Amino acid sequence: MDLRLYYQKIRDTQAKIADPFPVMESCETPDGGATGRLTEVTPAIAARLIVEGSARLASDADAAAFREARAKAKQAADEALAAARVPMTFLPMAEWNRIQDAGKRAKNQA
What we know:
Layout: H1 3-16, E1 23-26, E2 38-40, H2 43-52, E3 55-57, H3 60-84, H4 93-109
Antiparallel strand pairs: 1-2, 1-3
Helix pairs in contact: 1-2
């Protein structure tokens, strides 16, 4: 294998990739790679995967669906994280006593 040719192919392929984070679709490989899995990578990694034949650029429709699914998953995770937070307020003991005394006075006046 001519390494200069290999790396030149990678550079040429990388120059053709316009997207800063292209979505790649995996191809079936002899070492057990599954076909059809989508992932987002850098252009350098995308070019290497294309030259090695282990992945190809996903179609625009597949890439849009992948990104939309990722956005929905992130939104759901953010909402779950926000729901798990319990708001707490810490008061100095003097402030707590003042609030309790004010409540007792309001009960006595009513």
